[in-house]
């Protein structure tokens, strides 16, 4: 157990005092509890270590270290430097183990979503040269044995009392007094356990107070109803010091048996937890199977339903399922926000630690320079014995040597501090990486849930469309209900739904280049079909984002400078993501077309001064270019003038072709991807003159027909 006495710095306005506290690590909550003494029942406070960082500064003094939480900085002091480094290392280890055990996601209802994040739960051990080696355990000041030792004494009795927690102090004092009375009993027999047998609840409270700083230890009760006599380590030490020398061997045997029993109980608890986790997994699989069977039965019931009333009831059931999925999605959004806040907090901790390490390295470098200067000075002075005898006395030399020894001690202290900070930065970085992986997995989970939600809504709209076809045959009340449901479904906008949740795959009526993804039907009966198509497109995009597009995007992100290779060829044929397409297109065009300086601007000036014969045909084709694209559908669009200038410049650049139908679409797509007029012009030149066969674009289009 990680427990022991430490001094805690208390600040009351301008007054700062060190108060002795018994600290105990609670592994269930990753909290460091502190009490006034080891025998107290209620803690005075706790420190949350899950989001804390640790620091030790040589300037603060020997044994002083800090625990930085998001809300407060706790300054503690150990009895020695070795005890301080042991506490820091153990706190790092416990924080690492807790964060690893907590980095799994809550179980949902989908097999794809339920896959937990793979996290290495191995014990955090630093074995690199730049890290601090494991510190030997100071058993005299840390552990359960330290509880039997008397608490460190302060100058005054009231100095160690916590004025912030008077009620807790009163409870602990009363409990200690009652505990001592129960221990000795009315007849003075230390082995009288009748009072404990009559009130087992008092025994639990007593063990909670005298045990590991407030943690309850439950004893097993045999079948005959009697409690096994089990004594507290603190009381054992007091009895042995008070003259009960004949109990030494019996207590040692009891301690060994209790240690073995505690190890076996720990193993039983571990195996029990594993069995529970396996049972939960089996339950989840059963639930998933039942859900699939239930959906199958609902579909069959819908197909076999004879009356419309039954079908409407099934539709309402689907609506309730959609509402349930929406609530789950909101919960996941809240979880993502919390993870983002935790990630920002970890980033700030890492930045602070880096700045602190940089400052320490600069100080260390300055002190090394001072040592080198003093060494050189001593070498010069010792080289001349006569000068040494005349200028430097023995006392001055002794002071310099003493100062050098102090500087060497400071260097050793800074080296130890740097090694610990290296391990702290290393561990915090690994924790930050784990949080980032958790966030990525949560995003994937949200995408899967959104895709499933879109599928459910699509099925719901499909059912409404089937009912829409049978409206003339339905009674008037049922027909009115169907019309209301259809009108309500049409009022919901796909884009608004995407904005309310996570914008994982923004899908609206236009894609990233402005092309219309869903046709805008004028007929009322076809609008429902358009909604179904929009939901299907969004669902497919969400599912392909993680399964197909993300691995390809990761491969493209790893590509540095573009150069001809078989790997690049394979990547291009697999598909170029939108964020890389402009760069790749520019690189391909620049390899096959020599960009003449000011050539494009000269062609534009020529087109302004002289009208080209193809100008009239270009003006006719401009309104007919990519009519399903929002950047070209309107005559006042910003890309229409750019397209006009590109086509006119090409007609002057290649008089043999001038302009023919089809060039307007090539130039328009080049503008959408490259966004620059001159780049789009050279892309058009490369396609027409290098990629396509000769005479493919001409007045007769003979090669195109062939």
From TrEMBL:
Keywords: Coiled coil. CDD domains: PH_TBC1D2A (cd01265). One of its GO terms (molecular function) is small GTPase binding. This is TBD2A protein. Residues 275-370, 397-424 form a coiled coil. Residues 1-96 form the PH domain. Pfam families: PH (PF00169), RabGAP-TBC (PF00566). The keyword Coiled coil applies. The keyword Nucleotide-binding does not apply. It comes from Anseranas semipalmata (Magpie goose).
């Amino acid at each position: 157990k990680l427990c022991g006495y430490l001094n805690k710095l208390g600040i009351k306005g301008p007054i700062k005092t060190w108060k002795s506290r018994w600290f105990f690590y609670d592994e269930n909550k990753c909290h460091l509890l502190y009490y006034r003494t080891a025998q107290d029942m209620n803690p005075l406070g706790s420190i949350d270590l899950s989001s804390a960082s640790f620091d030790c500064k040589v300037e603060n003094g020997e044994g002083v270290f800090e625990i930085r939480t998001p809300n407060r900085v706790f300054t503690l002091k150990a009895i020695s430097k070795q005890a301080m480094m042991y506490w820091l290392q153990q706190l790092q280890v416990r924080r690492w183990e807790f964060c690893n055990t907590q980095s799994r996601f809550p179980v949902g209802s989908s097999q794809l979503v339920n896959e937990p994040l793979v996290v290495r739960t191995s014990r955090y051990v630093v074995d690199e040269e730049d890290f601090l080696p494991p510190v030997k355990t100071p058993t005299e000041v840390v552990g359960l044995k330290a509880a039997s030792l008397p608490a460190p004494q302060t100058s005054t009795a009231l100095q160690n009392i916590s004025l912030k927690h008077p009620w807790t102090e009163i409870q602990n004092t009363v409990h200690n007094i009652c505990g001592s009375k129960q221990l000795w009993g009315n007849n003075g027999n230390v082995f009288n356990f009748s009072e404990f047998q009559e009130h087992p609840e008092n025994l639990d409270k007593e063990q909670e107070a005298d045990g590991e700083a407030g943690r309850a230890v439950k004893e097993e009760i045999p079948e005959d109803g009697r409690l096994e006599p089990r004594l507290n380590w603190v009381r054992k030490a007091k009895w042995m010091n008070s003259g009960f020398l004949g109990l030494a061997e019996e207590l040692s045997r009891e301690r060994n048996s209790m240690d073995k029993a505690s190890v076996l109980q720990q193993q039983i608890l571990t195996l029990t937890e594993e069995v529970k986790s396996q049972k939960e997994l089996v339950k989840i699989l059963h639930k998933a199977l039942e859900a699939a069977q239930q959906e199958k039965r609902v579909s069959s019931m819908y197909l076999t339903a004879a009356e419309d009333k039954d079908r409407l009831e099934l539709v309402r059931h689907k609506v309730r399922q959609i509402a349930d999925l929406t609530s789950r999605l909101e919960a996941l959004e809240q979880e993502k926000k919390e993870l983002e806040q935790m990630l920002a907090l970890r980033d700030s901790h890492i930045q602070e630690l880096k700045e602190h390490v940089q400052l320490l390295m600069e100080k260390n470098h300055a002190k090394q320079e001072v040592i080198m200067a003093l060494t050189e000075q001593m070498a010069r002075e010792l080289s001349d014995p006569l000068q040494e005898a005349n200028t430097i006395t023995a006392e001055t030399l002794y002071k310099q040597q003493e100062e050098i020894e102090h500087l060497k001690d400071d260097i050793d202290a800074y080296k130890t501090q740097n090694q610990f900070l290296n391990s702290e930065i290393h561990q915090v970085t690994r924790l930050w990486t784990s949080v980032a992986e958790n966030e990525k997995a949560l995003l994937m989970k949200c995408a899967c849930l959104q895709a499933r939600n879109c599928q459910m809504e699509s099925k719901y709209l499909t059912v409404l469309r089937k009912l829409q076809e049978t409206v003339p045959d339905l009674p008037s009340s049922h027909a009115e209900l169907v019309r209301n449901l259809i009108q309500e479904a049409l009022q919901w906008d796909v884009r608004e739904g995407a904005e309310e949740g996570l914008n994982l795959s923004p899908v609206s009526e236009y894609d990233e280049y402005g092309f219309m993804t869903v046709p805008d039907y004028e007929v009322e009966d076809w609008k429902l079909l358009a909604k179904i198509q929009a939901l299907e497109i969004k669902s497919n995009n969400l599912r392909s984002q993680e399964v197909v597009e993300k691995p390809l995007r990761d491969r493209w992100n790893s590509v540095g400078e573009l150069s001809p290779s078989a790997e690049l060829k394979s990547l291009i044929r697999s598909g170029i993501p939108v964020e890389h397409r402009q760069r790749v297109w520019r690189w391909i065009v620049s390899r096959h077309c020599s960009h003449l300086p000011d050539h494009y601007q000269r062609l534009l000036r020529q087109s302004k001064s002289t009208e080209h014969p193809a100008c009239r045909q270009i003006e006719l084709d401009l309104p007919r270019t990519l009519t399903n694209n929002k950047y070209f559908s309107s005559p006042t669009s910003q890309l229409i003038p750019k397209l006009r200038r590109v086509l006119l410049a090409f007609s002057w650049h290649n008089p043999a072709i001038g302009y023919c139908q089809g060039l307007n679409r090539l130039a328009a797509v080049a503008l959408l991807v490259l966004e620059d007029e001159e780049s789009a012009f050279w892309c058009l030149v490369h396609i027409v003159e290098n990629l396509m066969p000769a005479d493919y674009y001409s007045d007769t289009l003979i090669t195109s027909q062939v």
